[in-house]
Design a protein that fits this description.
This protein has about 190 residues and is α/β, with parallel strands linked by helices. About 30% of the residues lie in helices and about 20% in strands. Strand 4, helix 5 (about 115-125) and strand 5 form a beta-alpha-beta unit.
Amino acid sequence: SSCIAALVSSTGSVPRAMAADGAGGTAGPAASQAVRALLVLNGKGLDTRGETEESKAYFRSSARLADYDAHIRRAAEELGVSVQHVQTNDLEECIARLQSAQEDAIVINPAGFMKEQELVDCIASLKKPVIEVHYGNFFAKGAVSLVTAACSGLIVGAKLDSYSLGMRAALAALDPSYHEFDHPPSQL
């Protein structure tokens, strides 16, 4: 199975295995709070995005997985969170990673797993915010993601910013005030 895992850090870079806190020893209220952790999971096919002319034409993008990773790392540093970025082409591995997630919230681009009922069921069983993101607007292509119904939110068509917006949305969903106007009250 093809899997990439990268933790990001504002303090340096150790390939595919580092902590990211973005806190940088800052004094004040943020320093006394625990650093939030996010899982950003990319599904089937993201490892070859932007690699072929066919991929570039279909997704209207030359962005490669390394570009996604760099954007996610920058966003984590700006938000002051730790992040683990994982890409997998194996559905069972994807589900196992979600089920074992210790992170506070999840941002997922299911990609080639958009129509997998097993993934939908897994996400529906999680007791934490899960934000679905997509580089492009798949609705404009007539596509549907079954995963959307199980997620807390959906961001599409904002290119790589879909990830940073998804990360922001995931963090916002962790704040108790996020659910202030929910009716009936949220169970998260």
